[in-house]
Design goal:
148 residues; Immunoglobulin-like; mainly beta; 0% helix
Length: 148
């Protein structure tokens, strides 16, 4: 996983190596297929969880967001592509998606990532960066990403 930011957005890039690719459906159940889930908490109270899949030429889903009209099919463009045995996911999340106007150096983002694995018989494993993303959602268990 790589993370970067500018004055308008947070950029996340994730590359996953997987011999058999069986993408999740581009809807609320995408976590059951090969996909990634990203959970963030910027201000200590608003939890956001999104998922990305290669299905539908790159689709995102928002399960949790403090603003109800942001939930459902992600309105932010997603780049998800498969080359050989590597799947690359790219998303640029505007600070407005986090209900922020801007961020400053030193801003802490609580973040967790789950990589879902499915070889065609359902989700068989999950690799995680940080806890609190699969099962009970708990930002206190997320990792800390400090913006510089």
């Amino acid at each position: 996983m790589r993370a970067a930011h500018d004055n308008r957005s947070l950029l996340l890039q994730v590359e996953v190596r997987d011999d058999i690719h069986h993408p999740g459906k581009p809807n609320t159940t995408m976590w059951q297929g090969d996909s990634i889930q990203i959970a963030c908490c910027v201000n200590g109270k608003d939890l956001i969880e999104i998922g990305l899949t290669t299905a539908g030429n790159g689709t995102g889903w928002c399960w949790l967001h403090p603003t109800p009209n942001q939930r459902g099919k992600l309105k932010i463009p997603v780049q998800a592509q498969r080359r050989g045995s590597v799947t690359s996911y790219h998303i640029r999340l505007p600070w407005t998606f986090f209900n922020l106007k801007k961020v400053t150096s030193g801003t802490i983002i609580r973040l967790a990532l789950a990589v879902n694995e499915n070889d065609g018989r359902g989700r068989v494993r999950v690799m995680k960066l940080g806890d609190g993303i699969t099962g009970v959602k708990d930002p206190e268990q997320f990792e800390c990403l400090r913006l510089e």
